[in-house]
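Run folding on both entries below.
>entry_1
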Amino acid sequence: MSDGTSGSTSEGTSGGIGREGDGGTGGLVCQLVLAALCGGYAAGAAVGWGSEKAALIMGDFGLSAAALIASVSCFVYARTRGSRFRPAWLLFAFSSAMAAAGNTVWGWYEVVLDREVPNPSIADLFFLLFAPPAIVGLLVLAKRPVTRAGWICLALDSWLIGGSLLTLSWSLALAHTAHFDGESVTRAALSLAYPLLDIVLVSMVLALHFRRSQANRSAVHTAIAALALTVLCDALFTSPLLREHYQSGQLLDAGWFAGSLLLAYAPWGSRVPESPAPPRGPRHHSSRPIAGSLAALTPYLAAAVCTLGILYNVIEDRRVDRVVVLTGCTVVLALVVRQGIMLLDNIALTHELAQKENHFRSLVQGSSDVIMIAAPNGVLRYVSPAASGVYGRDADELIGSELASLIHPDDLGGVVHEVRRFLAASPTEEPTTRIECRFKSGTGEWLNVESTVNRHQGGLIFNSRDVTERVRLQAQLQHNAEHDPLTDLPNRALFTRRVRQALSGRRAGDAGTAVLFIDLDGFKGVNDRLGHQAGDELLIQAARRLQDSVRAGDTAARLGGDEFAALILGDGGRDHSARESRVHEIADRLRLTLSQPYRVEGQDVRVAASIGVAFAEPGISAGDLLRNADLAMYRAKAGGKNRVELYAPQMQADVVRRTEQATRLRTALKDGEFTLLHQPVVDLTTGRIAAVAAQARWRSTQGILFTPAEFLRVAEDTERASELGHRLLQDAVEQAAERAALGHQVPVSVRFPARKLVDKSLPHGIIEALLTKYELPSGALIIELADSDPRISFDELEQRLTTLRRLGVRIALDGFGSGYAAINALRRLPVDILKLDRGLVEGVVESARLHKITSGLLRIACDLGMQSVADGVDAPEQVLALRAMGCTHGQGMAFSGPLDEYRLRRALARGEYALPSRAALPVLTGGALPAMRAHHALRPHNETRVPPT
């Protein structure tokens, strides 16, 4: 029976070091079942199981069943849980199987055969086969030494413990067993084998206990409990006093039974994984110093036990047994050898520690970062020598000072808050933190310092570095990202953010807040005339004037190019008219300031300023407010420039309408909704048709006929303008060629913007290519210059017109008398035809002033040898007056409106229109022209009735 006990011991140990990962909600239930089984077995053994036969069965086959359960448990665990401890569990399963077999044989003799167990018997063989695999299993599960000296110390520690226990046991009991008279050698050996195996197991457990893996703590404790219980039962069974009266089924068997069940439970009942991940942070356990002390004192305690065993025999005046003397000598020798190894190991460790200390001291002292250790009260205990180079202060000077006195007062509150939060956090979840603050240097300057903070014995370790240059660089980069590089004013992004801030917070709802959009009129001319460097200098001066003109709390910004903006914050007043007057006054002052002459490269340069103003409204967004101010600025430019315009909701409606019309215009170009009409140009002397003026019309899918005044302005503002002009020119030339093929040799006049002739986007040689393609004869195409934009280069325009004239294209100056650049164009450009503006013709009969102006212009054309064409001749009286002034040709409703191709060919077939036959009365002298109806003065003709252009 004692052999079965040993098996239980090893099983418990193996279970204790096994995997611990399967604990769960059923752990408590398993523990309760285990306690109930052990308690029930102990209660049955205490009352003798009710009969001698039942006691023998439970004492033999009950222990066998418990050992078999332990064997199966360890075997199943080893097969289902793959790990590096699998061989140990298989060894423990084999050991428990041997114990179960031994108890079964024992029960066969006592219960089945009803006779005493022979001594020795086959049961002893099974019991003896239990110990070796159990010992090897312990070695497999132990925390293995990493050096040769560690293995030697492990062996010495095992012998110190085993020799001491052997000495003590031999002195007390085993000597009597070894000299038992009348016993055979085999029986004496068996009597010594069981306690000696127990001593070996106890020695291995005690030697390996302090080397156990921390990952298997729960299983190890369970195994140690099973081992302690089993060894205790073995010791009681071995003692002669109890052995003489022992019978199976007694209370002593309950200890072996409990040991086997504890072994079966050990691998499954733990709650920590067998190979856990390393802990995230340091853990402090109060039991560690005690465990370390016991591990160090174990060999010495064992030697003390051995010595006490020898002294006991001396004091009792007993003869000291040779086994005790031999064992004691080997224990002392092992202790001396172990002490020598420990001494050499301590010397090596001391040397290694000194080297590491020197290494880390060199790292700390040579580091460019400052390392500081602060006590819990904030007093600096240590400061590395790098402080003199970083802070400009000696380390000794800083030691003993309070850390709070060195931090900028504005940053101190944030630092204290972060430190308190860091100390309250879990070290495993937040081992470090980072703090950035300003630190006072030796010169009194505040340095930007970044510190990594770690915990240290209740205080803190600061690893600090100077990041002043980095902070300055970041501030500079932030400034560059938010400011215009040329003028250093806030850019669009920063201005938009400040507008957004002004519309939120405590200023939300302040209707006095306004945004001013400013555009410099004529700046492009300065760039073209003086160069971009001069333009940049002008922008710098304009930005300086704008910055000086706004109030302290307002914001001036450059949005890009020659566009500026200003944010005017409201004063909280509720008087609508007063706020508009105040902001309008500010805007007008800015306009006057920006319109003053600029001194650029030694000469005075003038530009004007168009300003749009938009006021904040409840609920308006920053984007909408900026858009409103932009619309108002463009309205100011369209209204004549150099003025201030306040935003009105109608402006947005106009933009929407123009956008929709532009979209429809693009669709019309794609779907071919444009048509070409022609209005005859009549010789005022003969009435013959001298030319036809091509005019575009847009007939939409809804049946609406748009005149050029309604869609050309939109076309000029879109990317389709060039496409539209190209298509209309091609259609006019193509139809003129078709008419010429039918015998109607009439020139066609096409209105063409002057800027399009010099526009780089227009394909080069397009007019020349059309003339060649359709083979128009010389003089069959007339180009009417339709604008007088002063920004157009007259040199380029003159060169272009000269080239066209060489190809037989005649040039007409359209709208003469309306533009301020007309005289300059007449002086420099190669013009063949002068076309009077409609505004002069409309009042030539009623206004004596217009009569004189028109008469003078016609004389100029006559003196220069040019033909003259009056546009908008709608009444017979105008025909008579213009002919009297010397005008050669006329175009208007007095003859015909714009005609489609069919009606135009019918008119060309007739060839002429009737002219008024009666002389005009002297209108300017108080007379009156007789009323003449068109159908009396002119021959009837059919025409397409559309509004005049």
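>entry_2
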Amino acid sequence: MLPARAQAPDAAQAERDAAIARVLASGDGRGPATAYVVARAIEAHSVILHLRSPFLRQRSVEENATVLDIWTVRGTDGAEHEIHFRVPAPDTLPPEQREAERNVRRILTSGDGLTPETAFVVGGAIPAEYAILRLMGLERGVQALVNRGSCYYDVQTARDPASGETREIWFRLGGGGALAYSGRCEPARN
């Protein structure tokens, strides 16, 4: 269903592969009771990249001192599959890691990026857009700034290297700096 990635010979890749193997040994990821156990959301990202399954969306459910992260991916069979990860709640992390963990979770749960209405909300953080594209297994292409419905969007036309297909990924920007808007941002509606 989900293919394994071939290992690269260098030491850094061997270390990454060993970390991924530890995560994969922690469960089967098919449900809450058998969720993969990771220390941070970025490790879930690494597993998703390792599996080479296109990322579609992510949602989180807080439970006591942990968070159940549910990542929806497209399998090699073309169907959507959920992969479950158990992650410590951000408040249980060291202070220097809390904000980054919250930001990753906030962006991934803000939408799916497929339309202006469901755009990922990045608040103007362009590096976050690039990280999300990498997470989705996409290569950056043309980027356009669009003003729609009193909101500013970065629309990334990205390419899927596996299929060669291109698609638009929408990111809603915040209202600070040069992109300031007056009043409340009302996302575009069709």
